[in-house]
């Protein structure tokens, strides 16, 4: 019995070096969801993090913070997501949330042309003030409402290409492309930030030690 | 009460006419004002007369008397001396808003009529009007005296607010108790409070001032800018109410132009209460018979709620651009306001300027306090642990103070949205009592389904630090069993008047078993069992017919209210009781004709109310209408003794009591 147990422990112990490698490939990064009110930011976040969807999602106040840990390409990625409120009064606070973010998802509602206009403004603002290494994604949400569509996928795609974003049409309701969107961001990150290659912690923790005043996210 | 008001208004109206005969247009009893206004009305009065004639010709006779009675009662606020500026203002508003005129907004037209009578008593038309006024008055007065239901049928015909009040008065008992159709619906089946099922949010968003249903709501709240732009309306779509807002703005600015401030207008069953807050105007139109002081406090709270969301800094926007549209800035906050307005009828904190605590064993509350206290110096400015609208514990490591109203508004803000329940949130919030010009940042998370932790910091980048603090607090609260005890306390409910039964008159001090609400856990099963022997009168409740009480500790700025017991099992009865308490509170504090009182004993057909105010506490108690006075007083003494014994469990002690503002 004793020998067996020892053996078992030994067996269990064996993968430890691998595990440490695994830990070293643990990455966590912060992303921020921006967009007009009612575009579906919270729904996207909730679908991704909890797999839930509510037909009536109450509007976010300030910003909600969600985390999700997933294995992406053999590394474990912890997504820290700032789901910001779309109301105008919170606009001036957005820098607080996107300043430290490694990725931003700009969400618009395909059935609402105004929200697409608002999304373009967010892209401009991020290009102007954000981190140059920021990975940006444009998500045309509510793809399930194809019949009421106002913004064609081609239009979103064209705008995204012009501005170096990647584009997806998503539906938080049917879960279409939601996980793909977040995975795609995770895959793009090492490319966008070669200095923080895989195997390193891709947080702003290291950065924040150098410039603590600048980062708010992911300390 | 009704009778007296009507009598008063009658005599006031006579005064009014007397003054008219003296050829002085009495826009205000404030003489200066009246003089300053004299020039303008002569012009507008002729217009107004034309309007009235046009209008009256469209109405049948019953409507006429109707209107006149309204006019007449509009005059009644003359006693408070601010009516007539309202009349004048209405005229201005009406000229801005011809739509309201042709559709015969009952309120506006009534007031306009009265100003006609004020201004042009010589004209034959208005002479007729005056006699009509008197008729109308006797009619409504008789009606009220004899049976509250009968005049309402004659009132039914008018358009506008009066129609609303008429129809709801027809449903007799619910009239004063229910001010909202949503509640009315609940009311029909519910035998116990269904507040939980109440969902905050905009009601009847499709209505506007042209729809009859909109006019029938018993209590309207409006926020508008001093340029007349609608900012918030309790009912209906703000954009569609632009014309109506302009009318209100015209009334207010008319009076402001003469260097005065309009406070309220009484028009029939309705009173219109105004509050000016810098560039913002707040208006309530209510048929709920609440004293205007109470409504003004409610407007103050609405304004404070707005400041909580946007800070006073928003006023600068109006300096830059007087036509600034504030609607977009308040996007998605309808439910915050509607939740607060709902609280005006349900939450005593809205008029007591005090907060209430969840009853908890002393040791548990201490443990909760210790968990909140254990913070780094750079940590939160305030930490607050709440369960629903009740405080579990409150700490300010840096000895800053937070006012009870700020607690109310903050918890209202968070309770009104379910979006906080699922995630950690971090958002800017301004505590008007602490600093109305700056934002604090609030970290909010629900630790379980009821318990919510608030951590406030001045550091906009403080999220991760507060998140860490929350982790630590959560661990300690679980280790010390606080969360489980809180869940128990929620299940157990608050104080019950039936528990007073435990004490025999011969025992001046409660025996140790019952002196703790936790020792008598099973007792509330007694509640509802009619056969409990008890001194005093018939009815179920506490001894001597005690139904309910609210006790407010002046030093702690905290109050405790008993749970509703069986005689008060309908929402309308409970609402009526709160309204009665509000009136009582006002008369105990007000500097009105009666002045502040030390003790009051009032009996009406629904309850006996006893209030008692000392330097340490205020007690408001409601009894069975047949309760005996001396035994009621004795029971009040016992309640006070009982609460003093329970003090450590029902109040949060030692939380920097003297540093509270307010």
From TrEMBL, chain A:
It is a lipid-anchor. Keywords: GTP-binding, Lipoprotein, Membrane, Nucleotide-binding, Protein transport, Transport. GO terms for molecular function: GTP binding; GTPase activity. InterPro entries: P-loop_NTPase (IPR027417), Small_GTP-bd (IPR005225), Small_GTPase (IPR001806). GO terms for cellular component: cytoplasm; endomembrane system. The keyword GTP-binding applies. It comes from the Eukaryota. It is found in: Endomembrane system. Belongs to the small GTPase superfamily. Rab family. This is Rab5. It comes from Ceratodon purpureus (Fire moss).
Automatic annotation (TrEMBL), chain B:
Residues 545-645 form the FUZ/MON1/HPS1 third Longin domain. Residues 59-68 have a biased composition (Polar residues). It comes from the Eukaryota. Residues 123-133, 146-177 have a biased composition (Low complexity). InterPro entries: FUZ/MON1/HPS1_longin_1, FUZ/MON1/HPS1_longin_2, FUZ/MON1/HPS1_longin_3, Mon1. Residues 219-340 form the FUZ/MON1/HPS1 first Longin domain. GO terms for biological process: protein targeting to vacuole; vesicle-mediated transport. PANTHER family: SAND PROTEIN-RELATED, VACUOLAR FUSION PROTEIN MON1 HOMOLOG. Belongs to the MON1/SAND family. Residues 1-13, 69-81, 88-102 have a biased composition (Basic and acidic residues). Residues 381-473 form the FUZ/MON1/HPS1 second Longin domain. It comes from Ceratodon purpureus. Residues 1-210 are annotated as: Disordered. This is Vacuolar fusion protein MON1 homolog. Residues 134-144 have a biased composition (Acidic residues). Plays an important role in membrane trafficking through the secretory apparatus.
């Amino acid at each position: 019995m004793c020998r067996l147990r020892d053996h078992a422990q030994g067996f269990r112990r064996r993968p430890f070096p691998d595990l440490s490698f695994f830990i070293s490939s643990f990455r966590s990064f912060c992303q921020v969801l921006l967009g007009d009110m009612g575009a579906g930011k919270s729904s996207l976040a909730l679908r991704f993090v909890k797999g839930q969807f509510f037909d009536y999602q109450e509007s976010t106040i300030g910003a909600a913070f969600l985390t999700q840990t997933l294995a992406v390409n053999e590394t474990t990625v912890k997504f820290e997501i700032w789901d910001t409120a779309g109301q105008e009064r919170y606009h001036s606070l957005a820098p607080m949330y996107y300043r430290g973010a490694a990725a931003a998802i700009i969400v618009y509602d395909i059935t609402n042309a105004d929200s697409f206009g608002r999304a373009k403004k967010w892209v401009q603002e991020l290009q102007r003030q954000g981190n140059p290494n920021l990975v940006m994604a444009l998500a045309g949400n509510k793809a399930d409402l194809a019949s009421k569509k106002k913004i064609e996928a081609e239009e979103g795609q064209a705008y995204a290409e012009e501005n170096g974003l990647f584009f997806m049409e998503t539906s938080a309701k049917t879960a279409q492309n939601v996980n793909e969107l977040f995975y795609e961001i995770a895959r793009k990150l090492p490319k966008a930030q070669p200095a923080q290659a895989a195997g390193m912690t891709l947080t702003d923790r290291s950065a924040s030690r150098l410039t603590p005043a600048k980062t708010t996210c992911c300390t | 009460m009704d009778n007296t008001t009507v009598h008063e208004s009658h005599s006031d109206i006579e005064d009014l006419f007397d003054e008219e005969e003296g050829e002085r247009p009495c826009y205000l009893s404030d003489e200066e004002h009246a003089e300053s206004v004299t020039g303008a009305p002569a012009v507008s009065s002729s217009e107004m007369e034309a309007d009235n004639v046009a209008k009256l010709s469209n109405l049948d006779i019953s409507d006429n008397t109707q209107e006149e009675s309204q006019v007449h009662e509009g005059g009644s606020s003359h006693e408070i001396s601010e009516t007539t500026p309202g009349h004048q203002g209405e005229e201005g508003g009406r000229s801005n808003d011809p739509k309201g005129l042709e559709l015969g907004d009952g309120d506006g037209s009534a007031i306009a009529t009265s100003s006609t009578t004020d201004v042009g008593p010589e004209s034959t038309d208005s002479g007729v009007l005056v006699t009509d006024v008197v008729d109308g008055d006797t009619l409504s007065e008789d009606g009220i005296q004899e049976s509250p239901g009968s005049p309402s049928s004659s009132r039914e015909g008018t358009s506008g607010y009066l129609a609303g009040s008429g129809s709801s008065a027809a449903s007799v008992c619910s009239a004063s108790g229910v001010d909202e159709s949503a509640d009315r619906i609940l009311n029909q089946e519910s035998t116990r409070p269904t507040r939980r099922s109440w969902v905050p949010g905009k009601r009847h968003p499709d209505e506007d001032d042209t729809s009859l249903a909109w006019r029938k709501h018993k209590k309207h709240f409006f926020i508008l800018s001093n340029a007349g732009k609608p900012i918030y309306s309790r009912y209906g779509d703000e954009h569609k109410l632009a014309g109506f807002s302009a009318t209100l703005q015209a009334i207010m600015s008319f009076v402001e132009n003469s260097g005065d401030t309009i406070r309220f207008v009484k028009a029939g069953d309705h009173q219109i209460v105004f509050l000016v807050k810098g560039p913002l105007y707040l208006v309530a139109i209510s048929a709920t018979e609440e004293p205007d002081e109470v409504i003004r406090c409610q407007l103050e709270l609405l304004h404070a709620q707005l400041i909580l969301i946007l800070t006073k800094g928003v006023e600068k926007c109006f300096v830059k651009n007087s036509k600034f549209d504030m609607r977009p800035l308040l996007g998605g906050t309808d439910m915050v306001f509607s939740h607060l307005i709902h609280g005006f009828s349900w939450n005593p904190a809205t008029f007591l300027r005090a907060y209430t605590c969840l009853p908890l064993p002393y040791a548990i509350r201490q443990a909760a306090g210790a968990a909140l206290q254990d913070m780094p110096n750079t940590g939160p400015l305030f930490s607050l642990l709440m369960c629903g609208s009740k405080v579990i514990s409150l700490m300010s490591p840096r000895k800053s103070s937070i006012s009870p109203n700020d607690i109310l508004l903050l918890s209202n803000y968070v309770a009104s949205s379910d979006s906080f329940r699922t995630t950690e949130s971090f958002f800017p919030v301004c505590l008007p009592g602490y600093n109305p010009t700056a934002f604090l940042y609030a970290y909010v998370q629900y630790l379980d389904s009821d318990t919510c932790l608030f951590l406030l910091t001045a550091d906009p980048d403080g999220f991760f630090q507060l998140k860490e603090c929350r982790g630590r607090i959560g661990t300690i609260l679980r280790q010390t069993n606080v969360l489980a005890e809180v869940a128990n306390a929620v299940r157990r409910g608050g104080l019950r008047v039936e528990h007073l039964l435990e004490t025999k008159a011969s025992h001046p001090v409660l025996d140790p078993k019952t002196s703790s609400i936790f020792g008598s856990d099973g007792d509330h099963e007694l509640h509802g069992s009619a056969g409990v022997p008890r001194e005093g009168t018939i009815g179920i409740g506490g001894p001597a017919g005690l139904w309910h009480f609210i006790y407010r500790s002046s030093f702690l700025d905290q109050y405790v209210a008993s749970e509703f017991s069986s005689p008060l099992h309908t929402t309308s009865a409970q609402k009526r009781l709160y309204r009665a308490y509000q009136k009582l509170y006002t008369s105990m504090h007000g500097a009105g004709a009666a002045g502040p009182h030390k003790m009051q004993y009032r009996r009406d057909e629904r309850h006996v109310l006893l209030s008692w105010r000392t330097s340490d506490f205020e007690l408001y108690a409601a009894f069975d209408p047949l309760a005996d006075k001396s035994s009621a007083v004795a029971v009040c003494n016992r309640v006070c003794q009982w609460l003093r014994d329970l003090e450590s469990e029902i109040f949060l002690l030692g939380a920097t009591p003297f540093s509270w503002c307010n």
